[in-house]
Design a protein that fits this description.
The chain contains two helices and no strands. The longest helix has 25 residues. By secondary structure, it is an all-alpha fold.
Length: 58
C-alpha cells in the first residue's frame, strides 16, 4: 500500500491542476474530458518516478 502513495499524491495534484485550468479557461466537453483524463495520470506518473529516483537513506 505504501508504494502507491506517491502515485496517489501525484494523481491528486494532477486533478487539482485540472480543476484549476478548467475553471480558468472555462473549458467544456472534449477538451475538459481530455484534461481530466490526462493530468491526473501524468501527475501520478511524474511524482512516482521522482520518488523512485531519489535514493532512500532509510
Amino acid at each position: 500500500m505504501k508504494d502507491y502513495l506517491p502515485y496517489a499524491a501525484g494523481a491528486l495534484a494532477g486533478l487539482l491542476v485540472a480543476f484549476f485550468i478548467s475553471g480558468l479557461l472555462a473549458l467544456t466537453e472534449t477538451p475538459q474530458l481530455m484534461l481530466f483524463a490526462l493530468l491526473p495520470a501524468v501527475g501520478g506518473a511524474l511524482v512516482e518516478r521522482v520518488c523512485h529516483r531519489r535514493p532512500n537513506k532509510s
